[in-house]
Amino acid sequence: MTMSQEQIRDYCKTYLEATACQFLEKSPYHVTVKLSPQADKELTNRPYYWGFVERMGIEPETMSFCFIFDPEKHRALEDASAAPSAGHTDPVLDRHFGAVRPLPVLGPGRIQREEITFGSPRLKQIFAAARQGGRQVYLFENPGHLQRRTLLSAAYEPWLGVQYKLEFCCDVKREELHFLGISLQNGMVDDAFANRLKGKDLIPRLPENVHITPTGLALPVARERLEKLITSRLEDADSAWADAAQERLEEELLLIDSYYRDLLQDPDEERQLAFREQYEARKAEIRWQYEPRIVVSALGSGIFHLRSSL
Amino acid sequence: MNPHQSELDAPAAKPASGKVPIQFDRSWYDELQGRLDKGGPWDDWQLFQLAKQAEEASLVTSFEEMICLKHLQQVTPLPHQVDTARKVLFEMRGRAILADEVGLGKTIEAGLILKEYIVRGLVQKVLILVPASLVLQWVRELNQKFAIPAVAQKKAHSWQNPVVVASIDTAKRDPHRDILLGSEYDMVIVDEAHKLKNKKTTNYQFMLKLRKKYCLLLTATPVQNDLGELFNLITLLKPGQLGGQSDFTSNFVFEKRVPKNGEQLKEELAKIMIRNRRGDGELDFTKRHVKNIEVELSPEEMELYNGVTRFVKDQYQAAGGNLSSMLSLVTLQREVCSSRDAVFVTLVNLAKKLAPDSPLRDRIWELVALIKAIKANSKAEQAMKLIREMDDKVILFTEYRATQEYLLNYFKERNMIAVPYRGGMNRGKKDWMMDLFRGRAQVMIATEAGGEGINLQFCHQMINFDLPWNPMRVEQRIGRVHRLGQQNDVQIYNLSTKGTIEEHILRLLHEKINMFEMVIGQLDVILERFEKGSSLEKSLYKIMLESSSNDEIARKVDSLGQSLEHIRTELDEQADGPGENDGLQQLMGG
Description:
The structure holds two protein chains of two kinds. Chain A has eleven helices and eleven strands. By secondary structure, chain A is an alpha/beta fold. In chain A, helix 10 (about 240-265) packs antiparallel against helix 11 (about 270-290). Chain B is of the alpha/beta class. In chain B, the strands form two sheets. Chain B has a seven-stranded parallel β-sheet, with helices on both faces. Chain B has three domains: about 80-280, Rossmann fold (3-Layer(aba) Sandwich), CATH 3.40.50.10810; about 290 and about 375-585, Rossmann fold (3-Layer(aba) Sandwich); about 295-375, no CATH class. Chain B is built from 25 helices and 14 strands. At the A-B interface, helix 1, helix 6, strand 5, strand 6 and strand 7 of A face strand 1, helix 2, helix 3, strand 7 and helix 19 of B. Strand 11 (about 295-305) of chain A pairs parallel with strand 1 (about 20-25) of chain B, so a sheet runs across the interface.
């Protein structure tokens, strides 16, 4: 999977907005922003500075960045706008420094330029920041302003939603994502929970004129049900990959058996011990490399209060 | 619907024969419970969705696909490199010997494989063992080209980093040894792995004990002397791939260097080793064209040359024919073919070391007087003319710092833009010089060809202002320009001064070894065999110092050339020799 330039741009913009950064400049190909304290902490990797600022209680100076998503178009745009003001550099200094400036501009007014591509460390950092800052939520469906004026309060049903990641590992690996939801009211499971949430406006505060139906299902039970569902589906699923991995594993074990068979008969006890050690270590390595296993973890989870469909 | 649900939703194609163990990571649950108990704090819904999107974008959707290519912007791997990486990942299962010939990009292949495993989340902890001189290069390449945060090992605590590059000689020593043997590495990469060929060395024992999941061994010469070496390398990766030691010897070894059952052995090797060779399909290199230009020395220059030659020979006789004490003097003899400036610096340094009353001082001052008499540098004039004529980017190599300075000045006075390049420059300056050369300068004057970092595919003209006496250094020079990615045929100009030792050297390198046009990678094999006795450079010194006439030099250099030629034909015969015992060369190639 990957992301297109546009997707990356939208992604970064959403992140910068969500963290309340101040946009200084925008084009379809780049953004220039002054980071908010939250984003600065997450992206600039200066824990000492932030430790200092917080201990001294002084006003923090956050960094500014120019993130470029389409370098070519951005350059063209820049050239077009910079043309009239050409000659902003000193020709004498230019000759002295050569084709490239030896030092970047430093100081508070400095805007660091960065091209953001899929796989660039900065985008990875933003991904990581989003994962870290978006793990668990507690939300309510926004009923809209009409609900405030109706007589009857609306019934809201609590759901546990879990974003599961399934990793099928052996010496290679494949992953799947499943967003599962389970109603804490009646235990109904929705295996496409993302669809249920689609188009709904979700807000962190309880809206007016709304009541939550009592839960009929304790949280641990809900979790167990979800896990049971996953387990039973995995058991039914195609396990050819695991069988193949198991086969490779056996083959490798046979191979080292053939190599060590004679060596393990070595009359010299000390040497035999050394070989035995090597043999066991190698066997452990092979299991580590090939043994098929499935790891199920949750990337995000939360309680979602949705308008009851009944 | 989530597009990645196919496997879950699909009806079971085949009932599971054995149950695959499932591990549930429930840390999320404890955290959720904790937040519920405390009534928060809760995360932002927008970030929650972004996290989901990030996860979807970086999801590994299939077992066998190179996803790392989408993550790489700073490097465009060549087709054979991608093929190699794919084979190692999905057929050899991450344990392999990468044995490409020199210059085909083993590092890129290893980087691709490593990156793929990292992107897939199969590798976190990595150890990369390389010769000490290559540590920084590896760190730089992994960071710049692959965005892999590798660090060079400096202190004991460096080992805690996820990706560490270190020299094997450091790694195997205490206290590092215990730290490393106590850890588990998802991946270990060893560059120049032929250093692990001997089972009895501490290097080998260390590698054997290291706990690793995936492992790559990089070497251009998997077999140097003896088939057993190959067996030892493979035993590090997969003991048993070629059977036990005795099976291997009885099945595959005819003589030390001669395998039997070649076809079968080749098949077995193909399961664990990949060797790309030049000339395989698209890996064809462009041609090299050589032009030797004879420079006539002016009478004053010739005078100096003869003066220096006499001086050096007298000293050699006075020292009783002991070569080792003569090295700085021999340098003089070589420098005099380059520029008077180079000779001057060495002479002055020599004079400083002598006692004030030494009679040698007078002789040195005589030579200095000869230097003063020289008004022009014939070679520099010739070079200038040549560069003006070709009107193209050109790299000029000289062995001497003083010559480099002189030429920079000489060109500058004549309005030719030239930039220097030398080994002593730090990384930043080197890069800057490269940028200047790529941009506005027509000429780069380099004293250093070895080491990495100057890749000048955009330039296809080179001038050897003077010749190193070590053929490997000549090859390194050419290799800067003549490498993968060079689009044009490469023009090589050799300047040699008439009536001097340089003439003989050039003849030896050009006509006898034919090195300027030879397939790269063959030279080291020839030299290695030749230099079982003494190094080629030393043999040349001896010839120069002990011959009484020009003819004698020519004769001796010729016989040297003949023995080199002999080795070469021998190798060629081995390579394409028919017959029942396929040579090693063929085993490695083909």
